[in-house]
Amino acid sequence: MARERYLVNQEESTIHANQITPKTGKEKRANWWFHNKWKLISGILLLAAFISFIIPMVTRVDPDYSIIMATEFGVPQELLEDLEVHFEQYADDRNGDKKVSVEIVHCLFNTKATTLVNSNEMQASFVRFAADAGAGESMIVIYDDASYDYLAQSDMEGFFGPIDDTDNEYYLWKELKSLESLEINEYQDVGATAEGVQTVLGELKTAVRAEQGDAFREDEVKEYREDSIEFYKRLMNGEKTAE
């Protein structure tokens, strides 16, 4: 309170006249850093997230199928690669390059974390998910409830549609016969075992996009969805296309 007492009844010009003005280069740099460091750090994090999203899109080879995975927990890159290899056994060569390729795009929605880094990660994942949905790149989606609830704030109603004669908009991972034979490496760096990974993944939901949105104005996107449905059914029934 002492400092406030000295400022009572003081003119504005008097208050500002008593401010300390940086004079040396070192003092000016320190003053600038004090007032701008969080803006700079936030900008760097956003730029890094943007670059990590753009570079893969520019440099990657188009896969036959793209699957988007949205979870509230991190997924090791090695696990994503294991899944891609496994899914390729049930896919077909859509683009005619004589090679079957499946890509999994992971979006992290850690809604329980509150740090600036986590916030930027979620923003980058939302942009990634929205861009993918807008372009119709992934027709098959793997997700957990936390991620769906987060995305539902941007209206996910009607995003998924039944792919058989039932009303089911999704099936659990553990219900897909193809995933019963999934071979998963252990990931010591994150303390995960093959059994533990299968247990966690088993509760994820799997679904196919409904035919809605601007992307489906293109016939090739509609055809891609139909092919993705057949791919998804093979995953459900455990019907491999390659040995």
Tell me what the structure shows:
This protein has helices at residues 2-7, 12-17, 25-59, 77-87, 116-135, 145-152, 194-202, 219-237, and strands at 65-71, 102-108, 140-143, 171-172, 205-208. It contains 8 helices and 5 strands; from the N terminus they run αααβαβαβαβαβα. With 243 residues, it is an alpha/beta fold. It has a 5-stranded mixed beta sheet with strand order 2-1-3-5-4, with helices on both faces. The chain is elongated. Strand 1, helix 4 and strand 2 form a beta-alpha-beta unit. It folds into 2 domains: 16-59; 64-237, D-Maltodextrin-Binding Protein, domain 2 (3-Layer(aba) Sandwich), CATH 3.40.190. Mean pLDDT is 83; it is low at 1-12.
Write the layout of secondary structure elements.
Elements: H1 2-7, H2 12-17, H3 25-59, E1 65-71, H4 77-87, E2 102-108, H5 116-135, E3 140-143, H6 145-152, E4 171-172, H7 194-202, E5 205-208, H8 219-237
Descriptors:
about 240 residues; alpha/beta; D-Maltodextrin-Binding Protein, domain 2; 2 domains; five-stranded mixed beta sheet; 8 helices; 5 strands; elongated; disordered N terminus
